[in-house]
């Protein structure tokens, strides 16, 4: 069953989060709260789809790292999708790309299509 | 929301450039032991604003010391001062302890204050009120004074929190009795010299105790006017807030004339806004300045502050203000036929007002240019009987004249210095020949066209070993200055590769003409005698270019020719050794600059990102490069906001686009930016660290990132190189 809301979607035991176009401290914290609430409800897989995100600043990055830690502490799985080139560059500089599976589309991420991993959207 | 207003200050958007001082005083306040600081500065340089902001910072943002702010005023008697001082100390301590700003602002009677202290279990402090009452009842002025002056120390010892005293206008401490109350001054100095309470004190003169020396150890901090760059930025910002049309050169001129005095600059902009006038031309500035000085806010403030009631005082002041050298008191006495006692009173009064400095009988003018103009106006109208209109017209003309001189001196210094700097940076590099051929350059880029006769070779520049003005070799020669640079070509330091560059610089508003060229040819021929063995290269630089006759003659003689635009491009290319190889003739476009001021607001950095997107797109950066620049700029802005001492500080951005790169300068009005973090490798499977990625992101996304220390803080410089679309990714070598 798929439930789509404004900024998240539930697909079975997976939740897909859709952050805003700019991830800073405030947006990052909103995202983290949303993610935490899903983990507490027992969701094990979190996909963050960045298709609508143009910029992520360093504080946003630090919040995302915190989220990854939280998901891992709960033995969950977190995946990224829909990354624009600049956001991929940012994650790459920080070293996150070595720790996270990145998919071109959220469908690939939900389906766990590993062949599609490492892709960046051209949009 | 809690009411956080303490002592009145100007709007944060109208306060500029003192964040370093505020930060320093706040840091020193918390030091153990905390040194005494004397903050000196002319009238209206922002001492009160600075100290009130120090107080606000210490009141709300720390708990190590209890701040107490006290502004001295004229007092009828020492008893009156004692009561006022004691009340301020007690109510401000109460306010700090309860973190309730209302007590700071409200007038509270001694009785009510006593009740409040008792209600809050501060009995020992309530005792200070009783002692004061007893002393007043017994007419014991000394006891009342000592009780009041010792109250900060009593608060410290009884509360356990050290008190930090912020004493404003200390030079007014001796009160309305004209500085002749030795008891009050003596007791005050004694209490400060004891060193039991740390303090910062401001004064308009360097002798706040009327000639008495301060026996304790103290640091002196001088609050001068804001520097030209900051002043011009401040005025630009105010002009934007008040919708006043401006021109940056006029703002610099105004800042210079007003000596960076924040009150004068604000008054001028307010007056322009009120009159619906601009600050775009020299005439507009001259008219506004004179009107403001005589009839506006500046004049009103000066009139009340200087209190020029006596005609003799005015005469003395005028004589000091126009004297080219210090004057002795005997000379003044003789000139104005005044008795020694009267003259002494006048001199002491003027010295107290910070208008003159007296040293061993020698009297020197210590006021600023605006006060000098104001005194001239009052003197000419009151003493000489000239009409106000006549004096205004004369002063406006003087301001205009000075403005023209200022402009031309700026140009002159800038172009000659710029040329010398460029010659010294030649460093064996190659530069496109077209940058040394003004005619070809002008034809090629006329009206944005890139078509025209080609000049695609390169000039091999020498390794310069020395550069000097030709003056010492050609005494008495007329004409534009010539720089002589001596160096070696092809990276070989032998006589066969010796070369001399002779560079003529014409920095007036008219182009280089045939007469200038002939003058240069003749003089360079004579100068050449000094360098017989060397190869000679001649180069003429004209700020406004060349006439067609001059073009023909320079080309026929093989003399290089450049205008200020070419010079700037040469400078840009020389800044980076690799730039010359990246450059190609069709990529040369004149340098353009854009400025953006970001307010302190949520997501203000996105405004910068939007601006750079527009600029980058126009320059031809591809989407990926624009994304990288935006992300790096966002980081720089966040860093700048984070390190602005003031929570509502602004961030100033300057975008410089040139042939091959975009350079962005990000500057705040505060303390240094974060230093780039040391890169540390995390354990193989560990997640990256959470914080401290700002500089690494900037470095990873841009081609160059550097932090430049400047007066009043630091600025981040971001550079991204441009490679045209289709040549590969922007920012990569091809």
Order of helices and strands of chain A: EEEEHEEHEHEH
Q: What is the β-strand count of chain A?
A: 8
Architecture of the largest domain in chain B in CATH? Answer: 3-Layer(aba) Sandwich
Output the radius of gyration of chain A: 13 Å
| CATH topology label of chain A | Transcription Regulator spoIIAA
What fraction, in percent, of the residue positions of chain B are helical? 40-55%
The CATH superfamily name of the largest domain in chain B is P-loop containing nucleotide triphosphate hydrolases
The appropriate CATH architecture of chain A is 2-Layer Sandwich
Detailed description of the structure:
- The complex is a heterodimer of chains A (123) and B (734).
- By secondary structure, chain A is of the alpha/beta class.
- Chain A has one domain (13-116): Transcription Regulator spoIIAA (2-Layer Sandwich).
- In chain A, 39% of the residues lie in helices and 23% in strands.
- Chain A is built from 4 helices and 8 strands.
- Chain A has helices spanning 25-40, 58-73, 85-94, 106-111, and strands at 2-4, 8-11, 14-17, 22-23, 45-49, 55-56, 77-81, 101-103.
- Chain A has a 6-stranded mixed sheet. Chain A has a two-stranded parallel ribbon with strand order 4-6.
- In chain A, β2 and β3 (14-17) form a beta hairpin.
- The longest helix of chain A has 16 residues, at 25-40.
- The mean pLDDT of chain A is 85.
- Chain B is an alpha/beta fold and 734 residues long.
- Chain B has 5 domains: 12-222, 3-Layer(aba) Sandwich (Rossmann fold); 228-301, Helicase, Ruva Protein, domain 3; 307-385, Winged helix-like DNA-binding domain superfamily/Winged helix DNA-binding domain (Arc Repressor Mutant, subunit A, Orthogonal Bundle), CATH 1.10.10.10; 413-586, Trna Endonuclease, Chain: A, domain 1 (3-Layer(aba) Sandwich); 592-721, Histidine kinase-like ATPase, C-terminal domain (Heat Shock Protein 90), CATH 3.30.565.10.
- Chain B is built from 26 helices and 20 strands.
- In chain B, strands 2-3-4-1-5 form a 5-stranded parallel sheet, with helices on both faces. In chain B, strands 11-12-13-14-15 form a 5-stranded mixed sheet, with helices on both faces. In chain B, strands 16-17-18-20-19 form a 5-stranded antiparallel sheet, with helices on one face.
- In chain B, α21 links the parallel β14 and β15.
- In chain B, α14 (311-322) crosses α17 and α20 (514-528) runs parallel beside α21.
- At the A-B interface, β6, α2 and α3 of A face α24, α25 and α26 of B.
């Amino acid at each position: 069953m798929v439930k789509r809301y404004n900024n998240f979607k539930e697909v079975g035991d997976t939740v897909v989060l859709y952050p805003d176009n700019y991830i800073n401290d405030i947006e990052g914290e909103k995202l983290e709260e949303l993610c935490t609430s899903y983990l507490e409800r027992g969701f094990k897989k979190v996909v963050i789809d960045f298709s609508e995100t143009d910029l992520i600043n360093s504080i946003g990055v630090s919040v995302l790292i915190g989220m990854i830690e939280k998901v891992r502490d709960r033995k969950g799985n977190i995946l990224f999708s829909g990354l624009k080139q600049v956001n991929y560059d940012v994650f790459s500089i920080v070293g996150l790309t070595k720790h996270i599976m990145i998919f071109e589309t959220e469908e690939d991420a939900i389906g766990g299509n590993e062949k599609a991993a490492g892709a960046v959207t051209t949009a | 929301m809690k009411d956080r207003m303490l002592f009145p200050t100007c709007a944060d958007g109208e306060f500029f450039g003192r964040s370093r001082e505020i930060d320093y005083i706040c840091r020193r306040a918390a030091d153990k032991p905390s040194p005494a600081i004397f903050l000196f500065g002319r009238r209206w340089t922002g001492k009160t604003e600075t100290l009130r902001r120090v107080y606000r910072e210490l009141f709300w943002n720390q708990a190590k010391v209890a701040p107490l702010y006290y502004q001295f005023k004229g007092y009828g008697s020492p008893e009156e001062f004692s009561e006022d001082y004691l009340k301020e100390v007690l109510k401000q301590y109460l306010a700090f302890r309860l973190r309730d700003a209302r007590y700071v602002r409200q007038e509270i009677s001694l009785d009510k204050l006593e009740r409040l202290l008792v209600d809050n279990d501060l009995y020992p402090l309530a005792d200070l009120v009783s002692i004061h009452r007893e002393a007043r009842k017994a007419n014991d002025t000394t006891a009342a004074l000592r009780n009041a002056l010792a109250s900060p120390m009593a608060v410290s010892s009884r509360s356990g929190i050290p008190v930090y005293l912020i004493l404003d206008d200390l030079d007014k401490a001796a009160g309305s009795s004209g500085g002749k109350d030795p008891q009050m001054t003596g007791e005050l100095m004694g209490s400060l010299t004891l060193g039991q309470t740390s303090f910062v004190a401001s004064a308009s003169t360097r002798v706040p105790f009327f000639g008495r020396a301060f026996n304790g150890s103290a640091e002196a901090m001088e609050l001068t006017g804001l520097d030209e760059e900051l002043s011009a930025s401040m005025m630009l910002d105010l002009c934007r807030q008040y919708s006043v049309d401006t021109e940056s050169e006029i703002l610099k001129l105004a800042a210079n004339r007003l000596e960076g005095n924040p009150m004068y600059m604000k008054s001028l902009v307010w007056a322009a806004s009120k009159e619906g006038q601009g600050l775009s031309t020299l005439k507009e500035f001259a008219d506004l300045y004179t009107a403001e000085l005589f009839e506006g806010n500046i004049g009103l403030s000066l009139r009340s502050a200087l209190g020029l009631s006596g005609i003799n005082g005015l005469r003395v002041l005028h004589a000091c203000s126009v004297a080219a050298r210090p004057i002795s008191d005997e000379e003044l006495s003789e000139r104005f036929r005044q008795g020694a006692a009267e003259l002494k009173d006048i001199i002491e009064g003027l010295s107290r007002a910070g208008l003159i400095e007296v040293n061993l009988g020698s009297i020197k003018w210590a006021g600023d240019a605006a006060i000098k103009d104001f005194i001239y106006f009052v003197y000419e109208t009151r003493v000489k009987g000239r009409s106000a209109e006549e004096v205004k017209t004369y002063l406006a003309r003087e301001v205009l004249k000075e403005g023209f001189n200022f402009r031309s001196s700026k140009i002159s210094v800038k172009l000659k210095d710029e040329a010398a700097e460029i010659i010294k940076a030649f460093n064996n590099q190659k530069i496109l020949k077209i940058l040394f051929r003004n005619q070809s350059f002008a034809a090629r880029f006329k009206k944005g066209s890139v078509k025209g006769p080609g000049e695609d070779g390169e000039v091999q520049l020498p390794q310069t070993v020395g550069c000097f003005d030709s003056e010492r070799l050609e005494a008495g020669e007329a004409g534009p200055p010539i720089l002589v640079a001596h160096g070696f070509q092809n990276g070989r330091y032998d006589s066969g590769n010796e070369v001399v560059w002779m560079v003529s610089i014409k920095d007036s508003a008219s182009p280089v003409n045939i007469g200038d060229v002939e003058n240069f040819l003749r003089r360079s021929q004579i100068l050449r005698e000094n360098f017989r063995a060397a190869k000679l290269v001649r180069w003429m630089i004209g700020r406004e270019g060349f006439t067609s006759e001059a073009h023909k003659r320079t080309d026929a003689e093989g003399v290089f020719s450049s205008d200020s635009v070419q010079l700037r491009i040469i400078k840009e290319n020389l800044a980076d050794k690799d730039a010359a190889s990246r450059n190609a003739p069709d990529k040369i476009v004149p340098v353009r600059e854009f400025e953006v001021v970001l307010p302190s607001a949520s997501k203000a950095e996105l405004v910068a990102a939007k601006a750079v997107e527009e600029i980058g797109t126009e320059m031809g950066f591809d989407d990926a490069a624009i994304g990288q620049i935006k992300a790096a700029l966002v980081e720089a802005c966040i860093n700048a906001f984070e390190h602005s001492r003031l929570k509502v500080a602004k961030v100033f951005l300057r975008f410089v686009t040139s042939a091959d790169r975009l350079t962005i300068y990000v500057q705040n009005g505060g303390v240094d930016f974060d230093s780039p973090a040391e890169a540390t490798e995390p354990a193989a499977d560990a997640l990256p660290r959470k914080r401290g990625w700002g500089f690494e992101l900037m470095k990873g996304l841009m081609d160059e990132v550097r932090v430049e220390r400047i007066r009043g803080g630091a600025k981040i410089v971001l550079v991204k190189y441009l490679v045209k679309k289709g040549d590969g990714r922007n920012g990569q070598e091809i």
